[in-house]
From TrEMBL:
Name of the protein: HTH cro/C1-type domain-containing protein
Keyword Signal: no
PANTHER family assigned to the protein according to its UniProt record, in alphabetical order: FELS-1 PROPHAGE TRANSCRIPTIONAL REGULATOR, PTHR40661
Boundaries of every HTH cro/C1-type domain copy: 49-82
GO molecular function, one term: DNA binding
UniProt keyword terms in alphabetical order: DNA-binding, Transcription, Transcription regulation
Length: 272
């Protein structure tokens, strides 16, 4: 009897987590504020759906596979992730995309490298990745896969190599040379600490929040962001404040388990 009760609790937790993913798709991917809007959109692409049904799904009620497929088709999300929180098949990639750029998408069948297995053209160099969401074909062209949201992999072209002293990386930046990549800063959300065009060194092996610091993070749907994370004292489950150094922008508080930490920012190359 205890075993049956335990299985029921696991099943309920799985349903509730799936409901949260459905809600995240509605609010964060499709940018729909109401369940009514979501129901109307789904009804246009298949069998009629009511607002009550959407509300029940988001609270953890059972949802049919056809409805899940319809959500995936509309929102362009992976069915395995939405239904079961599984990562896509090994080797599958999420290509970078920028709606303001006209460019050829990344070939998802192209060979990519984990950071630690990639060999630079210049011995000891650190790769700079094109994380500006497809803003060009790159100058070197090889792909590096980076851990991304929900267990998926994001492939980014290597656009440059930077030669930095290994002693600096290990002892000053406290970074692993074989796991470090370079991202370019875009936008002004982290000014005055980081300016557009600056580069940051990110250690992909430091992908767990451990101390208050600046990290590359993902919320599961948007492009990677550089933000300052600060633990909320005495929170259980652990919550963190997501801080933009730009004082004009709002600080958010979320549960840590809802974030994907891509890596810790270990160094800063300023253009000024």
């Amino acid at each position: 009897m205890r075993h049956i009760r335990s299985m029921m609790m696991i099943s309920r937790k799985v349903d509730e987590e799936r409901g949260q993913r459905i809600k995240d798709v509605r609010t964060n991917v499709l940018k729909l504020r109401s369940q009514e809007e979501f129901a109307q959109l789904l009804s246009k692409h298949g069998r009629p759906v009511t607002r009550g049904a959407v509300g029940n799904w988001e609270r953890g009620a059972e949802v049919g596979i056809e409805s899940l497929k319809a959500i995936c088709q509309i929102a362009n999300v992976d069915l395995d992730w939405l239904a079961f929180n599984r990562a896509p098949k090994a080797g599958s990639l999420i290509s970078s995309f920028d709606p303001d750029q006209q460019h050829e998408p990344i070939d998802c069948d192209a060979e990519s490298y984990a950071r630690e297995s990639w060999t630079p053209q210049v011995d000891g160099a650190i790769p700079e990745l094109d994380v500006r969401l497809g803003a060009g074909n790159g100058t070197i062209g090889e792909l590096i896969s980076v851990p991304f949201a929900n267990g998926t992999i994001s492939a980014h072209r290597i656009i440059a190599e930077w030669l930095l002293p290994e002693d600096y990386l290990r002892h000053e930046a406290k970074a692993s040379p074989s796991h470090t990549v370079i991202f370019e800063i875009i936008g002004d959300s982290m000014q005055p600490s980081f300016h557009p065009g600056d580069r940051v060194l990110i250690d992909l092996s430091q992908n767990q929040f451990s101390v208050d610091a600046v990290y590359a993070i993902s919320d599961g749907f948007a492009e990677p962001q550089i933000k300052r994370l600060q633990r909320v004292p005495f929170s259980n489950p652990t919550e963190v404040r997501i801080i933009s150094d730009n004082p004009a922008l709002e600080t958010f508080t979320v549960e840590l388990n809802r974030l994907t930490v891509i890596g810790r920012v270990c160094g800063h190359i300023s253009r000024k």
